[in-house]
Amino acid sequence: MDRIKNQEKEFDHFARAKRLEEIPLLTKQYEQEKKVARKFFELQEAKKIEQLNRDRQMALASRDRLNRMKTDKDEFLNLFRGQRKEMFEKKLAEFEARVSEERKKRLYERKEKRREDRRQKWIQERAKEE
């Protein structure tokens, strides 16, 4: 039992000594990794900022190009809307003319039907009287 305890003490002593030797190395390694991570972060940030600047320049160029096209777009849309409006008004006039014709036709048919009904009624009354 004593032998096991002695071995345990030796192992514990060795482990602590090892840790005492490792702590400065670990802190040194941590500092180095921290520096590398910092450089990597700064490099990535610089790339990100550079990309954002390029994107902004491209957006400004696109905006300027599109602004030059705006008058042409407006002219085209006005022409297109004018043509569509003319076509709509023409079709509307045709539709209203057909509706008017149909209305007149139906009115005439009802008038003729009422006249025919009155005539038939008059004929029936005459037949009853005789």
TrEMBL record:
It comes from the Eukaryota. One of its GO terms (molecular function) is mRNA binding. Keywords: Initiation factor, Protein biosynthesis. This is Eukaryotic translation initiation factor 3 subunit A. It comes from Magallana gigas. The lineage of its organism: Eukaryota, Metazoa, Spiralia, Lophotrochozoa, Mollusca. InterPro entries: EIF3A. One of its GO terms (cellular component) is eukaryotic translation initiation factor 3 complex, eIF3e. GO terms for biological process: formation of cytoplasmic translation initiation complex; translation reinitiation.
